[in-house]
Amino acid sequence: MIACLGRIVHDSEAESKLDDDVSTIFNSLNLQGSIENGDVSGIASKDFGGLYSVKPLYLIRPSGAEDISRVVKAAAGTPHLTVAARGNGHSINGQAMADGGYVIDMRSTGENHFKLLTVNGSPCIDISGGALWEDVLRRCVSRFGLAPRSWTDYLSLTVGGTLSNAGVSGQAFRYGPQTSNVTELEVVTGKGDITVCSETQNPELFFGALGGLGQFGIITRARVKLQPAPDMVRWIRVVYAEFEEFTRDAEFLVSQKEDESFDYVEGFVFCNNDDPVNGWPSVQLNPDQEFNPAHLPQTAGPVLYCLELAFHYRNSDQPSTVDMAVSRLVRGLGFVDGLISQVDVSYMGFLLRVKRAEQDAKANGVWDNPHPWLNLFVSKSDIVDFDRTVFKKMVKNGIGGPMLIYPLLRSKWDSRTSVALPEGEIFYIVALLRFVPKGPSVEKKVAENREIVKWCIKEGLDFKLYLPHYRAKEDWKRHFGNQWTRLEKRKANFDPMAILAPGQRIFKRTN
Ligand code: FAD
Questions:
Q1: pLDDT tens column, 250-260
Q2: Among 72, 93, 156, 162, which is best to mutate for testing ligand 1, by the most ligand atoms less than 8 A from CB?
Q3: Each residue of 202-213: pLDDT tens digit?
Q4: Of the residues 266, 308, 382, 495, which is catalytic?
Q5: Do 109-229 and 232-465 agree at the fold level?
Q6: Strand 303-313 and strand 264-271: pairing?
Q7: Pocket flag, ligand 1, residue 168 (CB < 6 Å)
Q8: Is the CATH number of domain 232-465 3.30.450.40?
Q9: Rounded to two decimals, what is the model's pTM?
Q10: Residue 326: closest CA among 336, 312, 315
Q11: For residue 417, which of 209, 258, 207 has the smallest C-alpha distance?
Q12: Quick one: which of 112, 247, 285, 307 could link to 128 by a disulfide (CB 3.0–4.6 Å)?
Protein backbone atom coordinates (compact mmCIF):
# COMPACT_ATOMS: atom_id res chain seq x y z
CA MET A 1 0.00 0.00 0.00
CA ILE A 2 2.65 2.51 1.05
CA ALA A 3 4.65 1.41 -1.96
CA CYS A 4 2.01 3.19 -4.08
CA LEU A 5 3.44 6.52 -2.91
CA GLY A 6 5.46 8.17 -5.61
CA ARG A 7 4.89 5.42 -8.08
CA ILE A 8 3.74 7.89 -10.72
CA VAL A 9 6.51 8.77 -13.11
CA HIS A 10 6.15 12.10 -14.90
CA ASP A 11 5.90 11.75 -18.60
CA SER A 12 6.65 15.24 -19.88
CA GLU A 13 5.46 14.59 -23.40
CA ALA A 14 2.14 13.32 -22.19
CA GLU A 15 1.87 16.22 -19.74
CA SER A 16 2.30 18.90 -22.38
CA LYS A 17 -0.33 17.19 -24.50
CA LEU A 18 -2.60 17.24 -21.48
CA ASP A 19 -2.04 21.00 -21.08
CA ASP A 20 -3.35 21.46 -24.61
CA ASP A 21 -6.20 19.11 -23.85
CA VAL A 22 -7.35 21.02 -20.76
CA SER A 23 -8.78 23.94 -22.69
CA THR A 24 -10.34 21.60 -25.25
CA ILE A 25 -11.99 19.58 -22.48
CA PHE A 26 -13.09 22.75 -20.66
CA ASN A 27 -14.78 24.02 -23.82
CA SER A 28 -16.31 20.70 -24.77
CA LEU A 29 -17.77 20.27 -21.27
CA ASN A 30 -19.08 23.82 -21.33
CA LEU A 31 -18.09 24.20 -17.67
CA GLN A 32 -18.99 27.25 -15.60
CA GLY A 33 -16.34 26.29 -13.06
CA SER A 34 -12.72 25.44 -13.78
CA ILE A 35 -10.54 22.49 -14.68
CA GLU A 36 -6.86 21.72 -14.30
CA ASN A 37 -4.55 18.83 -15.01
CA GLY A 38 -4.27 16.18 -12.37
CA ASP A 39 -1.03 16.63 -10.49
CA VAL A 40 0.67 13.98 -8.40
CA SER A 41 1.40 16.56 -5.72
CA GLY A 42 -1.98 18.30 -5.90
CA ILE A 43 -4.82 18.00 -3.41
CA ALA A 44 -6.68 15.40 -5.47
CA SER A 45 -3.78 12.96 -5.08
CA LYS A 46 -3.74 13.15 -1.30
CA ASP A 47 -5.94 12.56 1.68
CA PHE A 48 -5.73 12.86 5.46
CA GLY A 49 -4.60 9.25 5.79
CA GLY A 50 -1.37 9.95 3.92
CA LEU A 51 -1.13 6.27 2.96
CA TYR A 52 -2.07 6.38 -0.71
CA SER A 53 -1.46 8.66 -3.63
CA VAL A 54 -2.78 8.28 -7.17
CA LYS A 55 -2.78 10.78 -10.02
CA PRO A 56 -6.12 11.89 -11.42
CA LEU A 57 -6.48 12.96 -15.03
CA TYR A 58 -8.22 16.25 -14.21
CA LEU A 59 -9.22 18.19 -11.12
CA ILE A 60 -12.50 20.00 -11.66
CA ARG A 61 -13.87 22.82 -9.56
CA PRO A 62 -17.53 22.87 -10.54
CA SER A 63 -19.81 25.84 -10.08
CA GLY A 64 -22.75 23.60 -9.22
CA ALA A 65 -24.80 20.50 -9.99
CA GLU A 66 -24.99 21.28 -13.73
CA ASP A 67 -21.21 21.24 -14.07
CA ILE A 68 -21.03 17.98 -12.10
CA SER A 69 -23.68 16.45 -14.33
CA ARG A 70 -21.70 17.45 -17.45
CA VAL A 71 -18.54 15.86 -16.07
CA VAL A 72 -20.31 12.60 -15.19
CA LYS A 73 -21.94 12.46 -18.62
CA ALA A 74 -18.59 13.11 -20.30
CA ALA A 75 -17.02 10.26 -18.30
CA ALA A 76 -19.94 8.03 -19.26
CA GLY A 77 -19.17 8.73 -22.92
CA THR A 78 -15.74 7.11 -22.55
CA PRO A 79 -14.99 3.44 -22.00
CA HIS A 80 -12.91 3.89 -18.85
CA LEU A 81 -13.10 7.25 -17.05
CA THR A 82 -14.30 7.48 -13.45
CA VAL A 83 -15.43 10.41 -11.29
CA ALA A 84 -14.62 10.93 -7.60
CA ALA A 85 -16.29 13.64 -5.54
CA ARG A 86 -13.72 15.02 -3.13
CA GLY A 87 -15.22 16.58 -0.03
CA ASN A 88 -12.41 17.81 2.18
CA GLY A 89 -10.21 14.79 1.52
CA HIS A 90 -10.37 13.57 5.13
CA SER A 91 -10.58 9.94 4.13
CA ILE A 92 -7.83 7.60 5.23
CA ASN A 93 -7.54 5.08 2.43
CA GLY A 94 -7.85 7.00 -0.85
CA GLN A 95 -11.66 6.81 -0.92
CA ALA A 96 -11.98 10.26 -2.56
CA MET A 97 -9.36 9.61 -5.25
CA ALA A 98 -9.72 8.61 -8.91
CA ASP A 99 -6.68 7.00 -10.51
CA GLY A 100 -6.54 8.50 -14.01
CA GLY A 101 -10.09 9.83 -13.65
CA TYR A 102 -11.89 13.09 -12.85
CA VAL A 103 -11.77 14.40 -9.29
CA ILE A 104 -14.47 16.91 -8.44
CA ASP A 105 -13.53 19.37 -5.73
CA MET A 106 -16.86 19.78 -3.95
CA ARG A 107 -15.53 22.64 -1.84
CA SER A 108 -15.99 24.96 -4.84
CA THR A 109 -19.75 24.50 -4.46
CA GLY A 110 -19.75 25.11 -0.70
CA GLU A 111 -21.59 28.42 -0.85
CA ASN A 112 -24.28 27.41 -3.35
CA HIS A 113 -27.04 26.66 -0.85
CA PHE A 114 -27.88 28.16 2.52
CA LYS A 115 -31.59 28.60 3.07
CA LEU A 116 -33.68 28.29 6.21
CA LEU A 117 -37.05 26.53 5.80
CA THR A 118 -39.85 25.30 7.98
CA VAL A 119 -41.00 21.80 7.11
CA ASN A 120 -44.02 20.42 8.97
CA GLY A 121 -43.51 23.11 11.59
CA SER A 122 -39.84 22.25 12.20
CA PRO A 123 -36.80 24.29 11.14
CA CYS A 124 -34.47 22.87 8.47
CA ILE A 125 -31.58 24.26 6.47
CA ASP A 126 -30.75 23.59 2.83
CA ILE A 127 -26.97 23.40 2.59
CA SER A 128 -24.42 22.51 -0.07
CA GLY A 129 -22.91 19.05 -0.25
CA GLY A 130 -19.53 20.77 -0.45
CA ALA A 131 -20.06 22.98 2.63
CA LEU A 132 -17.94 22.33 5.72
CA TRP A 133 -19.91 21.52 8.86
CA GLU A 134 -17.94 24.17 10.77
CA ASP A 135 -19.28 26.83 8.39
CA VAL A 136 -22.80 25.43 8.71
CA LEU A 137 -22.48 25.68 12.50
CA ARG A 138 -21.20 29.25 12.50
CA ARG A 139 -23.79 30.50 10.04
CA CYS A 140 -26.76 28.69 11.57
CA VAL A 141 -25.96 29.80 15.11
CA SER A 142 -25.04 33.41 14.30
CA ARG A 143 -27.91 34.04 11.89
CA PHE A 144 -30.75 32.00 13.34
CA GLY A 145 -29.74 30.80 16.81
CA LEU A 146 -30.32 27.28 15.45
CA ALA A 147 -28.02 24.31 14.89
CA PRO A 148 -28.10 20.80 13.40
CA ARG A 149 -28.84 18.14 16.01
CA SER A 150 -26.22 15.53 15.18
CA TRP A 151 -22.54 16.22 14.59
CA THR A 152 -19.13 14.72 14.03
CA ASP A 153 -16.37 15.41 16.57
CA TYR A 154 -14.39 17.35 14.00
CA LEU A 155 -16.16 19.78 11.70
CA SER A 156 -13.72 20.49 8.85
CA LEU A 157 -15.53 17.74 6.96
CA THR A 158 -18.03 18.31 4.18
CA VAL A 159 -21.74 17.70 4.41
CA GLY A 160 -21.63 15.30 1.44
CA GLY A 161 -18.56 13.50 2.79
CA THR A 162 -20.03 12.65 6.19
CA LEU A 163 -23.52 11.89 4.82
CA SER A 164 -21.88 9.38 2.45
CA ASN A 165 -20.60 7.53 5.54
CA ALA A 166 -22.93 8.24 8.52
CA GLY A 167 -21.58 11.12 10.62
CA VAL A 168 -21.27 10.08 14.25
CA SER A 169 -20.57 11.90 17.49
CA GLY A 170 -21.78 12.09 21.07
CA GLN A 171 -25.29 13.27 20.05
CA ALA A 172 -25.96 10.20 17.87
CA PHE A 173 -27.35 8.14 20.76
CA ARG A 174 -30.28 10.57 20.91
CA TYR A 175 -30.77 11.79 17.34
CA GLY A 176 -29.06 9.05 15.37
CA PRO A 177 -26.14 9.75 13.03
CA GLN A 178 -26.20 12.71 10.65
CA THR A 179 -27.80 10.44 8.04
CA SER A 180 -30.86 10.19 10.33
CA ASN A 181 -31.23 13.97 10.38
CA VAL A 182 -31.65 14.71 6.68
CA THR A 183 -35.03 14.99 4.98
CA GLU A 184 -34.10 15.70 1.36
CA LEU A 185 -31.11 15.52 -0.95
CA GLU A 186 -30.23 16.77 -4.39
CA VAL A 187 -27.99 14.20 -6.04
CA VAL A 188 -26.18 13.90 -9.38
CA THR A 189 -26.38 10.22 -10.23
CA GLY A 190 -23.84 8.11 -12.11
CA LYS A 191 -25.96 8.72 -15.22
CA GLY A 192 -25.51 12.47 -14.80
CA ASP A 193 -29.16 13.05 -13.79
CA ILE A 194 -29.77 15.83 -11.26
CA THR A 195 -32.40 14.33 -8.96
CA VAL A 196 -34.15 15.56 -5.83
CA CYS A 197 -34.93 12.71 -3.46
CA SER A 198 -36.45 12.15 -0.03
CA GLU A 199 -38.28 9.48 1.94
CA THR A 200 -41.26 9.87 -0.42
CA GLN A 201 -39.64 11.10 -3.66
CA ASN A 202 -37.11 8.72 -5.27
CA PRO A 203 -36.62 6.98 -1.90
CA GLU A 204 -34.23 4.33 -3.28
CA LEU A 205 -31.79 7.05 -4.30
CA PHE A 206 -32.31 8.98 -1.05
CA PHE A 207 -31.63 6.03 1.23
CA GLY A 208 -28.99 4.63 -1.12
CA ALA A 209 -26.98 7.87 -1.06
CA LEU A 210 -27.12 8.15 2.76
CA GLY A 211 -24.18 6.10 3.97
CA GLY A 212 -23.70 5.00 0.35
CA LEU A 213 -19.94 5.67 0.17
CA GLY A 214 -20.58 7.87 -2.86
CA GLN A 215 -21.66 4.87 -4.94
CA PHE A 216 -25.02 6.10 -6.24
CA GLY A 217 -24.67 9.83 -6.68
CA ILE A 218 -22.88 13.01 -5.73
CA ILE A 219 -24.76 14.94 -3.04
CA THR A 220 -25.00 18.58 -4.08
CA ARG A 221 -27.58 19.73 -1.53
CA ALA A 222 -28.90 18.37 1.76
CA ARG A 223 -31.87 19.46 3.87
CA VAL A 224 -30.82 19.09 7.49
CA LYS A 225 -33.02 19.26 10.60
CA LEU A 226 -32.26 22.05 13.08
CA GLN A 227 -32.98 22.75 16.72
CA PRO A 228 -32.48 25.80 18.97
CA ALA A 229 -28.77 26.12 19.74
CA PRO A 230 -27.84 26.28 23.44
CA ASP A 231 -25.45 29.02 24.57
CA MET A 232 -23.25 26.98 26.84
CA VAL A 233 -22.07 23.47 27.58
CA ARG A 234 -20.90 21.90 30.83
CA TRP A 235 -18.20 19.51 29.61
CA ILE A 236 -17.41 16.67 32.01
CA ARG A 237 -14.96 13.76 32.17
CA VAL A 238 -15.13 10.92 34.68
CA VAL A 239 -12.62 8.07 34.94
CA TYR A 240 -13.21 4.34 35.42
CA ALA A 241 -10.78 1.60 36.31
CA GLU A 242 -13.12 -1.23 35.26
CA PHE A 243 -14.49 -1.69 31.75
CA GLU A 244 -17.71 -3.30 33.03
CA GLU A 245 -18.51 -0.23 35.11
CA PHE A 246 -17.67 2.12 32.27
CA THR A 247 -19.94 0.28 29.80
CA ARG A 248 -22.74 -0.10 32.36
CA ASP A 249 -22.86 3.67 32.92
CA ALA A 250 -22.40 4.53 29.24
CA GLU A 251 -25.23 2.20 28.22
CA PHE A 252 -27.43 3.51 31.01
CA LEU A 253 -26.91 7.13 29.91
CA VAL A 254 -27.63 6.48 26.23
CA SER A 255 -30.82 4.60 27.09
CA GLN A 256 -32.42 7.35 29.21
CA LYS A 257 -35.14 9.77 28.10
CA GLU A 258 -34.09 13.20 26.85
CA ASP A 259 -34.62 15.05 30.14
CA GLU A 260 -32.92 12.34 32.14
CA SER A 261 -29.52 12.22 30.49
CA PHE A 262 -26.73 14.32 29.09
CA ASP A 263 -26.86 15.93 25.64
CA TYR A 264 -23.66 14.25 24.56
CA VAL A 265 -22.14 10.92 25.60
CA GLU A 266 -18.77 9.68 24.38
CA GLY A 267 -15.88 7.78 25.91
CA PHE A 268 -12.29 6.85 25.39
CA VAL A 269 -9.56 4.52 26.58
CA PHE A 270 -6.22 5.81 27.83
CA CYS A 271 -3.06 4.35 29.33
CA ASN A 272 -2.57 4.19 33.05
CA ASN A 273 0.71 6.12 32.96
CA ASP A 274 1.95 9.67 32.59
CA ASP A 275 2.65 9.54 28.86
CA PRO A 276 1.65 12.98 27.52
CA VAL A 277 -0.13 11.60 24.42
CA ASN A 278 -1.62 8.31 25.61
CA GLY A 279 -1.77 8.63 29.40
CA TRP A 280 -3.21 10.76 32.18
CA PRO A 281 -2.16 14.15 30.78
CA SER A 282 -4.37 13.50 27.72
CA VAL A 283 -7.46 13.34 29.95
CA GLN A 284 -7.01 16.68 31.66
CA LEU A 285 -9.96 19.00 30.93
CA ASN A 286 -9.52 21.79 33.40
CA PRO A 287 -5.98 22.72 34.50
CA ASP A 288 -7.35 23.58 37.97
CA GLN A 289 -8.80 20.10 38.47
CA GLU A 290 -5.87 17.77 38.00
CA PHE A 291 -6.77 14.09 37.91
CA ASN A 292 -4.90 12.39 40.68
CA PRO A 293 -4.14 8.72 39.91
CA ALA A 294 -3.73 8.15 43.65
CA HIS A 295 -7.54 7.79 43.72
CA LEU A 296 -7.32 4.63 41.59
CA PRO A 297 -7.96 1.24 43.18
CA GLN A 298 -5.05 -1.23 43.42
CA THR A 299 -6.84 -3.41 40.88
CA ALA A 300 -6.55 -0.84 38.05
CA GLY A 301 -5.02 -2.36 34.93
CA PRO A 302 -2.81 -0.99 32.12
CA VAL A 303 -5.67 0.93 30.54
CA LEU A 304 -8.39 3.13 32.02
CA TYR A 305 -11.67 4.42 30.64
CA CYS A 306 -13.07 7.91 30.52
CA LEU A 307 -16.70 8.87 29.95
CA GLU A 308 -17.00 12.26 28.29
CA LEU A 309 -20.32 14.00 28.84
CA ALA A 310 -21.90 17.34 28.01
CA PHE A 311 -24.90 19.20 29.34
CA HIS A 312 -26.41 22.07 27.33
CA TYR A 313 -27.75 25.23 28.95
CA ARG A 314 -28.64 28.83 28.24
CA ASN A 315 -26.96 32.01 29.47
CA SER A 316 -30.18 32.83 31.29
CA ASP A 317 -29.99 29.63 33.41
CA GLN A 318 -28.86 30.20 36.99
CA PRO A 319 -25.44 28.61 37.74
CA SER A 320 -26.98 26.82 40.74
CA THR A 321 -29.65 25.29 38.50
CA VAL A 322 -26.99 23.97 36.11
CA ASP A 323 -24.92 22.62 39.02
CA MET A 324 -27.96 20.86 40.46
CA ALA A 325 -28.98 19.34 37.12
CA VAL A 326 -25.45 18.05 36.46
CA SER A 327 -25.08 16.68 40.01
CA ARG A 328 -28.38 14.85 39.63
CA LEU A 329 -27.20 13.23 36.37
CA VAL A 330 -23.76 12.35 37.69
CA ARG A 331 -25.12 10.92 40.94
CA GLY A 332 -25.31 7.15 40.72
CA LEU A 333 -22.54 6.82 38.13
CA GLY A 334 -19.84 4.36 39.20
CA PHE A 335 -16.68 6.25 38.25
CA VAL A 336 -13.70 6.28 40.60
CA ASP A 337 -14.37 8.67 43.51
CA GLY A 338 -12.61 11.97 42.99
CA LEU A 339 -11.85 11.37 39.32
CA ILE A 340 -14.18 13.93 37.82
CA SER A 341 -13.29 17.11 35.98
CA GLN A 342 -15.61 19.69 34.43
CA VAL A 343 -15.45 22.96 32.62
CA ASP A 344 -17.98 25.42 31.13
CA VAL A 345 -17.46 26.36 27.50
CA SER A 346 -19.55 28.03 24.83
CA TYR A 347 -21.59 25.71 22.60
CA MET A 348 -19.51 26.75 19.57
CA GLY A 349 -16.30 26.32 21.56
CA PHE A 350 -17.39 22.80 22.50
CA LEU A 351 -18.28 21.77 18.95
CA LEU A 352 -15.05 23.29 17.63
CA ARG A 353 -12.89 21.57 20.29
CA VAL A 354 -11.08 19.33 17.80
CA LYS A 355 -10.29 22.36 15.65
CA ARG A 356 -8.23 23.68 18.57
CA ALA A 357 -6.49 20.31 18.84
CA GLU A 358 -5.82 20.53 15.09
CA GLN A 359 -4.22 23.94 15.49
CA ASP A 360 -1.96 22.62 18.27
CA ALA A 361 -1.07 19.52 16.28
CA LYS A 362 -0.28 21.65 13.23
CA ALA A 363 1.97 23.84 15.35
CA ASN A 364 3.77 20.69 16.59
CA GLY A 365 4.03 19.32 13.07
CA VAL A 366 2.10 16.10 13.88
CA TRP A 367 -1.17 16.91 12.11
CA ASP A 368 0.29 16.14 8.69
CA ASN A 369 1.78 12.81 9.77
CA PRO A 370 0.24 9.67 8.24
CA HIS A 371 -2.94 8.46 9.92
CA PRO A 372 -3.47 4.71 9.71
CA TRP A 373 -6.84 4.94 11.45
CA LEU A 374 -9.18 2.10 12.19
CA ASN A 375 -12.89 2.66 12.90
CA LEU A 376 -15.24 -0.15 13.83
CA PHE A 377 -18.74 -0.74 15.09
CA VAL A 378 -18.69 -3.60 17.61
CA SER A 379 -21.82 -5.17 19.06
CA LYS A 380 -22.42 -4.90 22.81
CA SER A 381 -22.40 -8.70 22.93
CA ASP A 382 -18.71 -8.74 21.92
CA ILE A 383 -17.37 -5.56 23.43
CA VAL A 384 -15.98 -7.17 26.60
CA ASP A 385 -13.98 -9.63 24.47
CA PHE A 386 -12.83 -6.77 22.31
CA ASP A 387 -11.65 -4.83 25.36
CA ARG A 388 -9.89 -7.88 26.81
CA THR A 389 -7.93 -8.61 23.64
CA VAL A 390 -7.54 -5.32 21.81
CA PHE A 391 -7.41 -2.60 24.47
CA LYS A 392 -5.87 -4.60 27.30
CA LYS A 393 -3.35 -6.46 25.15
CA MET A 394 -2.84 -5.33 21.54
CA VAL A 395 -2.84 -1.54 22.10
CA LYS A 396 -2.28 -1.40 25.84
CA ASN A 397 0.70 0.95 25.38
CA GLY A 398 -1.35 3.46 23.43
CA ILE A 399 -1.43 4.31 19.75
CA GLY A 400 -0.09 7.85 19.66
CA GLY A 401 -3.59 9.30 19.43
CA PRO A 402 -7.12 8.97 20.84
CA MET A 403 -8.83 5.59 21.28
CA LEU A 404 -12.56 6.36 21.29
CA ILE A 405 -15.26 3.98 22.46
CA TYR A 406 -18.91 4.78 23.14
CA PRO A 407 -22.28 3.13 22.65
CA LEU A 408 -24.89 3.85 19.96
CA LEU A 409 -28.44 2.64 19.49
CA ARG A 410 -29.37 0.82 16.30
CA SER A 411 -32.99 1.97 16.54
CA LYS A 412 -31.79 5.54 15.87
CA TRP A 413 -30.39 4.48 12.48
CA ASP A 414 -32.62 3.97 9.46
CA SER A 415 -32.12 0.49 8.06
CA ARG A 416 -33.12 1.74 4.60
CA THR A 417 -29.84 3.70 4.31
CA SER A 418 -26.75 1.99 2.91
CA VAL A 419 -24.80 1.89 6.21
CA ALA A 420 -23.86 -1.61 7.39
CA LEU A 421 -24.28 -2.13 11.15
CA PRO A 422 -23.80 -4.98 13.64
CA GLU A 423 -26.94 -6.87 14.70
CA GLY A 424 -27.64 -5.90 18.30
CA GLU A 425 -29.57 -2.80 19.46
CA ILE A 426 -26.55 -1.46 21.36
CA PHE A 427 -23.23 -1.35 19.55
CA TYR A 428 -20.04 0.59 20.19
CA ILE A 429 -18.08 2.81 17.87
CA VAL A 430 -14.39 2.12 18.37
CA ALA A 431 -11.95 4.53 16.77
CA LEU A 432 -8.19 4.03 16.88
CA LEU A 433 -6.95 7.42 15.72
CA ARG A 434 -3.23 6.96 15.23
CA PHE A 435 -0.76 9.73 14.43
CA VAL A 436 2.37 8.01 13.14
CA PRO A 437 5.62 9.67 12.01
CA LYS A 438 6.47 9.07 8.35
CA GLY A 439 8.61 5.97 7.89
CA PRO A 440 8.53 2.22 8.38
CA SER A 441 6.35 2.40 11.49
CA VAL A 442 3.40 3.38 9.28
CA GLU A 443 3.37 -0.05 7.60
CA LYS A 444 3.63 -1.62 11.05
CA LYS A 445 0.58 0.25 12.30
CA VAL A 446 -1.39 -0.63 9.17
CA ALA A 447 -0.47 -4.26 9.82
CA GLU A 448 -1.59 -3.91 13.46
CA ASN A 449 -4.97 -2.65 12.27
CA ARG A 450 -5.21 -5.58 9.90
CA GLU A 451 -4.43 -7.95 12.79
CA ILE A 452 -7.29 -6.47 14.81
CA VAL A 453 -9.75 -6.88 11.93
CA LYS A 454 -8.49 -10.43 11.30
CA TRP A 455 -8.95 -11.25 14.96
CA CYS A 456 -12.53 -9.89 14.90
CA ILE A 457 -13.32 -12.07 11.87
CA LYS A 458 -11.62 -15.18 13.30
CA GLU A 459 -13.47 -14.87 16.60
CA GLY A 460 -16.76 -14.33 14.77
CA LEU A 461 -17.40 -10.94 16.40
CA ASP A 462 -20.58 -9.10 15.42
CA PHE A 463 -18.79 -6.06 13.96
CA LYS A 464 -18.55 -3.81 10.89
CA LEU A 465 -15.88 -1.43 9.74
CA TYR A 466 -16.98 2.21 9.86
CA LEU A 467 -15.49 4.24 6.96
CA PRO A 468 -14.82 0.79 5.50
CA HIS A 469 -11.99 0.00 3.15
CA TYR A 470 -11.66 -3.35 1.50
CA ARG A 471 -10.07 -4.34 -1.76
CA ALA A 472 -11.62 -7.71 -2.55
CA LYS A 473 -15.24 -8.04 -3.61
CA GLU A 474 -15.63 -10.97 -1.21
CA ASP A 475 -14.76 -8.68 1.71
CA TRP A 476 -17.29 -6.08 0.55
CA LYS A 477 -19.93 -8.82 0.26
CA ARG A 478 -19.20 -9.94 3.80
CA HIS A 479 -19.27 -6.35 4.98
CA PHE A 480 -22.71 -5.67 3.51
CA GLY A 481 -24.03 -9.16 4.31
CA ASN A 482 -27.69 -9.47 3.40
CA GLN A 483 -27.68 -5.84 2.14
CA TRP A 484 -25.33 -6.75 -0.70
CA THR A 485 -28.10 -7.56 -3.19
CA ARG A 486 -29.82 -4.24 -2.46
CA LEU A 487 -26.51 -2.43 -2.93
CA GLU A 488 -25.94 -4.12 -6.31
CA LYS A 489 -29.47 -3.24 -7.44
CA ARG A 490 -29.05 0.37 -6.42
CA LYS A 491 -25.72 0.48 -8.24
CA ALA A 492 -27.31 -0.92 -11.39
CA ASN A 493 -30.08 1.70 -11.16
CA PHE A 494 -28.10 4.81 -10.39
CA ASP A 495 -24.53 4.21 -11.56
CA PRO A 496 -24.71 1.26 -13.97
CA MET A 497 -21.22 1.83 -15.43
CA ALA A 498 -19.62 2.21 -11.98
CA ILE A 499 -18.31 5.68 -12.74
CA LEU A 500 -18.62 7.11 -9.23
CA ALA A 501 -16.34 6.92 -6.18
CA PRO A 502 -13.78 4.48 -7.65
CA GLY A 503 -11.54 5.00 -4.60
CA GLN A 504 -13.90 2.85 -2.54
CA ARG A 505 -12.94 -0.14 -4.74
CA ILE A 506 -16.33 -1.80 -4.51
CA PHE A 507 -17.28 -1.97 -8.18
CA LYS A 508 -15.11 -1.98 -11.31
CA ARG A 509 -15.81 0.55 -14.09
CA THR A 510 -17.65 -1.16 -16.95
CA ASN A 511 -18.00 -0.04 -20.51
P1 FAD B 1 -13.83 12.86 1.55
O2 FAD B 1 -12.79 12.17 2.29
O3 FAD B 1 -13.42 13.90 0.59
O4 FAD B 1 -14.76 11.79 0.80
C5 FAD B 1 -15.18 10.61 1.44
C6 FAD B 1 -15.99 9.73 0.48
O7 FAD B 1 -17.22 10.36 0.21
C8 FAD B 1 -15.33 9.51 -0.88
O9 FAD B 1 -15.68 8.27 -1.36
C10 FAD B 1 -15.92 10.61 -1.72
O11 FAD B 1 -15.91 10.28 -3.09
C12 FAD B 1 -17.34 10.67 -1.16
N13 FAD B 1 -17.91 12.01 -1.24
C14 FAD B 1 -17.36 13.18 -0.84
N15 FAD B 1 -18.24 14.18 -1.05
C16 FAD B 1 -19.34 13.61 -1.57
C17 FAD B 1 -20.59 14.11 -1.99
N18 FAD B 1 -20.89 15.41 -1.93
N19 FAD B 1 -21.49 13.25 -2.48
C20 FAD B 1 -21.23 11.92 -2.55
N21 FAD B 1 -20.07 11.39 -2.19
C22 FAD B 1 -19.13 12.23 -1.70
N23 FAD B 1 -16.49 10.71 11.11
C24 FAD B 1 -17.51 10.64 11.96
O25 FAD B 1 -18.54 10.05 11.67
N26 FAD B 1 -17.42 11.20 13.20
C27 FAD B 1 -16.34 11.91 13.60
O28 FAD B 1 -16.31 12.41 14.71
C29 FAD B 1 -15.26 12.03 12.69
N30 FAD B 1 -14.17 12.74 13.02
C31 FAD B 1 -13.15 12.84 12.13
C32 FAD B 1 -12.02 13.59 12.47
C33 FAD B 1 -10.98 13.72 11.61
C34 FAD B 1 -9.77 14.54 12.00
C35 FAD B 1 -11.03 13.06 10.36
C36 FAD B 1 -9.88 13.15 9.41
C37 FAD B 1 -12.12 12.29 10.00
C38 FAD B 1 -13.20 12.19 10.88
N39 FAD B 1 -14.34 11.45 10.56
C40 FAD B 1 -15.38 11.38 11.44
C41 FAD B 1 -14.44 10.71 9.29
C42 FAD B 1 -15.12 11.52 8.23
O43 FAD B 1 -16.51 11.56 8.47
C44 FAD B 1 -14.93 10.87 6.87
O45 FAD B 1 -13.57 10.71 6.62
C46 FAD B 1 -15.54 11.71 5.78
O47 FAD B 1 -15.58 10.97 4.60
C48 FAD B 1 -14.69 12.90 5.55
O49 FAD B 1 -15.42 13.88 4.86
P50 FAD B 1 -14.74 14.62 3.66
O51 FAD B 1 -15.66 15.72 3.36
O52 FAD B 1 -13.34 14.96 3.86
O53 FAD B 1 -14.90 13.46 2.56
A1: 999 999 999 89
A2: 162
A3: 999 999 999 999
A4: 266
A5: no
A6: antiparallel
A7: yes
A8: no
A9: 0.95
A10: 312
A11: 207
A12: 112
